[in-house]
From TrEMBL, chain A:
Entry-linked NCBIfam families: nuoE_fam, PRK07539.1-4
Region (Disordered): 217-255
Superkingdom per UniProt: Bacteria
Protein name: NADH-quinone oxidoreductase subunit NuoE
Automatic annotation (TrEMBL), chain B:
Principal EC category: translocase
Gene behind this protein: nuoG
Organism, scientific name: Flaviflagellibacter deserti
Entries under SMART domains matching the protein: NADH-G_4Fe-4S_3
Lineage: Bacteria, Pseudomonadati, Pseudomonadota, Alphaproteobacteria, Hyphomicrobiales
Keywords of the record: 2Fe-2S, 4Fe-4S, Iron, Iron-sulfur, Metal-binding, NAD, Quinone, Translocase
NCBIfam families: NuoG (TIGR01973)
Protein name: NADH-quinone oxidoreductase
Family: Belongs to the complex I 75 kDa subunit family.
Assigned EC number: 7.1.1.-
Annotated ranges, domain 4Fe-4S His(Cys)3-ligated-type: 86-125
Record bears the keyword NAD: yes
Bound cofactor: record note: Binds 1 [2Fe-2S] cluster per subunit.
Boundaries of every 2Fe-2S ferredoxin-type domain copy: 1-87
Amino acid sequence: MSVRRLAAVQPESFAFTPENVKWAKGIIAKYPEGRQASAVISLLWKAQEQHGGWLPEPAIRAVADMLGMAYIRVLEVATFYTMFALQPVGKHFVQVCGTTPCLLRGADKLMHVCEKVIGHQNHVTEDGQLSWLEVECLGSCSNAPMAQINYDYFEDLDPESFEKLLDDLRNDRPVKPGPQVERACSGPVGGPTTLLDQSLYDGSVVGSWKKRFDETKAAKEAATVQAATEAAKPKETSPGEKQAAKQPTDKTKGA
Amino acid sequence: MAKIIVDGTELDVPPDFTLLQAAEQTGAEIPRFCFHERLSIAGNCRMCLVEVKGSPKPVASCAMAVKDLRPGPNGEPPVVITNSPYVKKAREGVMEFLLINHPLDCPICDQGGECDLQDQAMAYGSDASRFAENKRAVEDKYIGPLVKTVMTRCIQCTRCVRFSTEVAGVPDLGSIGRGEDMEITTYLEKAMTSELQGNVIDLCPVGALTSKPYAFAARPWELSKTETIDVMDALGSNIRVDARGREVLRIMPRLNEDVNEEWISDKTRFVWDGLKTQRLDRPYIREAGKLRPATWNEAFTLIAEKVKATKPKKIGAIAGDLASVEDIFALKGLMSNLGVKNLDCRQDGVALDPSFGRASYIFNPGVSGIDTADVILLVGSNPRWEAPVLNARIRKAWRLNGTKVAVIGEQADLTYAYDYLGAGVDTLNGVVDGSHSFSKTLKDAKRAIVIVGQGALIGENGAGVLSLAAKAADAIGSLTDEFSGLAVLHTAASRVGALDLGFVPGEGGLGLAGMLKPKALDVLFLLGADEVDVPAGPFVIYQGTHGDRGAHRADVILPGAAYTEKHGTWVNTEGRVQIGSRATFPPGDAREDWAILRALSDVLGVKLPYDSFAQLRATLYAAYPHMAAADQILAGDVASLKSLAGRGGAVQAGLAFRSSIENFYFSNPIARASALMAECATLAAGGKLEAAE
């Protein structure tokens, strides 16, 4: 990360579209009176979306005016969060993760590809299609190395697939977000390697463990019945008592 | 109260005290950079670490409250240690990190010698750096003509940001970026717009924000420091004047909780360059329409000729806004010896009069009374320009105590929210008779203050408005024996003192308006009075410091001493008697004003009965005993306010109040001579200055 400054060339003005104004009012209404400033990040993000993925200076003022904040307060927020791009970006804004897991899995090679295909960081290609930036961890470490392009993650990249991906994007060919290798989400490459037993999935083993409860329950009932019959018998000699008391226990075990 | 043991001493402190405050009660000194008593707690410098028994880590004492500590297993009070080797090591660690990115440029830094970081590095710094990487460097920012920035020195304590947001109420400064790239700046490097911005120079613990006009001028240990009183407004801020030789190099605030806390306005702080320019350093006499330098004897002889040829009825004297009590006392003595009754000190023509009683012209609740007020009604006053530090105090009450503020007069940006009641007299009448919707709030208030500005009291309606304001204060129940809520906010430093001395027309004498009528007078004596337009006709003697309006009109100029160049007493708007001292000597042939008047009295044959300043003071104290009680307020009498309320007076219906200050930066001759004030005025007027660097 380096010092982030507002872009040297700025648009004359910025105004939210009527739909976005309506949306913003809804967001502001979520917060109690006097706490409108809480909506600042949402509004800045919307302004960035509306303005082609980067945040111009007039938008900072527009948001501050909407929320009754000092301009410097909004500038503080906009410069603090790196998700607000202060410099113009390409139509496809490539954010390559450069944190340890991705770097260990070859993110540096992806960055070389970016240097080759796009140019330096924060540089927009002449056709306006691409620009790139190294960012910190995007939380997709199991699929390293990866890059976020606009709203989508492209994972399990290697220099070849990444170069092709950039080429497809540049020429507006359809691309597939997610893992770029044979794999579902963060599952094993080439398909699952465990839990392969089909019976796990056909319902045949479903509920088998419940049988044990039924058996235990039946045994208990039988024992109770047995004890009741013993007790109902007319009283016999006292020497038999010990045995009678012992018998049901044995029976329970036996059952 | 909560019990706590600090360094083995058991203390009983309020539970909301921070550990830092509690430790200070025992006399323990805790180093700090970001913490400041009058700002919110940030807790980001980590220099104030202390050891708390049972805590696994050192604790930032500025941000931990006593009530948040757990007692010991048997209910013993929590134990805090501020001087153990553990604490020292923790602080040394913090200091090492602070110094990693701090440049080693103390020899060329203006903060050198009075730098918190330098001082604390002596106690906690290590002798060598273990940091082999590149140091951080930050671009300097333009934040106005008064404050110079060297941003590489910044340690991100954010005191300046908190000051401008909280105390000044003008959120100009902010910190952009994050982590190592955090930088203090204004929005797009525009100049700061607060009239209190100079205080960030004092707040900055390092040399990141320093005084631009004072840059590379001197080292603190070369300066002679004189404690005195400011005269730029009627608050009488306590200041320290730092001078080297004959030159005032800077002005800094002094702590006085009852007056200015520890802030001063930019006009107070940066006016000193006006003390060097446009100065009158020798007497002048007007000959054939042109002023020519003259000797004291020539000037005195000419004055004596004129005065002796004139009847006392045709002589008048006006005292200026910066004059000290002693000067005015000497002038009054001289005039009464001559039999002159045409005296006035109210250059702006306000209708305040000592005959109404002292309570009618002072800020009765006192400046510190603002802290306990629950409603403040501003009548014809814009305190932001009339007394910026007082305005900051109102803002503090509004922000921390929830004090309500209401305004009758101009709608201006006062840095706090207020209820706007109306423009003038009609609204005030509504408050008096209770018909205004806000009257209920005022009546329900326990301590409501009515602040009356000079703007409301100017002119023929003035007396009526003053009476009406007293009536309003009475109607809302603010005129009781315990609490008197009528507060007159002055703009001239000399005014209350002059009114105390009764420097107003004697019996049958002419007032300001009468004296300024064409052909009313033959000789007019101006004691530093520059805010009046003297018509053609009278022979004008101007005794003052600067070649300003009064000197331009003068026939004889007697060079006097500015407020930093004489001992003197000033009475501030709340009636507090404050004594100032001489920091430098007047330039050239200029003399202290009382001495000029004493010498002149001898030439005129009406010798004043004192030969030294001490004798003058003794005479003054005999005549006005309350002047001897330095830093005391002689309280006004509520009964006189009640009778003032009953006086009534003609008031034109529909009259709208305006503040008496037209341009904050040009309100007196010293400020008008200052190039810096002119620059500030241009900026304030929306003009653009080229960034100097």
